[in-house]
Task: structure prediction
Amino acid sequence: MAIASIIALALTFSAVSPDAPGSSQTPCWERDAFPILKRNCIACHGSGSAMGNLSLPDSARFRSERIRQNLSSRKMPMRGDLREADRNTLISWVEQGAIRCP
Result:
């Protein structure tokens, strides 16, 4: 019985990739933040339409604190359909320094 438990535990941990959602990996621009912003924000904040004086992706890293404040207060996105996991990833990206991927 103990061997079966050990095998089950080993299989559980081996199935979790370090890049899997929910991992403790620090979010970075290219892998985490940019894809979310591209899916949810570029339509209103792209190069041709910089609503709220915010043009993405050019200024995202430089305006990251403003992005965090608007996401935390739920001012953005205005249409309100950002997944909670994506909101948390963006906030975490800012809080951990808005870094680029290594």
Observations:
- The two ends are 44 Å apart (CA to CA).
- The chain has a mean pLDDT of 77.
- Residues 2-14 form the longest helix (13 residues).
- Residues 61 and 98 are 6 Å apart (CA to CA).
